[in-house]
Amino acid sequence: MLIINSGKDLFLITSVGNALTPKHDIVAMGSGGNYALAGGSVMMTNGNLAVERIGG
Asked: Which domain holds residue 38?
């Protein structure tokens, strides 16, 4: 799989060559892809969240 982002368009290319466009301009892959997708979805719907650093 391959993620392509031109700055204007976002695509996910599958292993068989299909070009998929994400539903909400968020795409993730890999072993933590579902976690990244969930975090990205939260950030897109609640964009006013502040980032807080925890620890050293």
From this structure: 23-49
